[in-house]
Amino acid sequence: MRLLNSLFYQLVDAFQTFRAKGWRAGIIRLAKTGQRVIYNQDEFIVLAKALFPADPSPDLLPGLSVRRLTTQADVNLLEPLAGATDMARFHRMFDLDAVVFAAFLEGQVIGWGWLTDKIDPQTNRVQAPLQPGDACLYDLFVAPDFRERGIAQRLVASRLQYLRDHGYQRSVITCSKDNPAALKVAQRAGYVSIGESRHTRLLFWDRYEYKSFKLEEHYRV
What we know:
Blueprint: H1 2-21, H2 23-38, E1 39-50, E2 64-69, H3 72-75, H4 84-95, E3 99-105, E4 108-116, H5 121-124, E5 134-142, H6 151-165, E6 170-176, H7 180-188, E7 192-202, E8 205-211
Parallel strand pairs: 5-6
Antiparallel strand pairs: 1-6, 1-7, 2-3, 3-4, 4-5, 7-8
């Protein structure tokens, strides 16, 4: 059922690409969707950061605000930037008590970031095992026109402060090896590598592997 739901929403996204960008872009999107449904393998770097002592707050940008979205109606504010696949996943994540912060510039949503202390492979993709006092940050996104302005760092900082305020001790992030920009944001925020993970999917079969994974005490409080 999970695979069928994912396929349905990805097909919706592909047809939206047909309408917005033309047949060539739509066919490319459809081909990638088919390939990922049949077989997909991703490799990740797992990073961690102790939440105390707290970091200095980043400077505010004129017109920018970052706040928590607290209702399903709030989550719908992400729809102009998210496809059908992500919106279906976002609503499930919210129902499972995941927390989302959104960045607004002059009232317009330009980015978001999620956090949770529970791992649900259907929505969180691949995350490292969490220990008591841990929570993971994931699904960081900033609209392309607003990148390289420090907005990602502010979304990270807001979520880290939420974790501190709610008694967590450590934050974990899993970055795809194919996403150096996300890795750079995490390292700039003070995260350090604690291992690697791999997710392999072949139709209905999933496998999660963790290699050279370590939880040294100096990453904890």
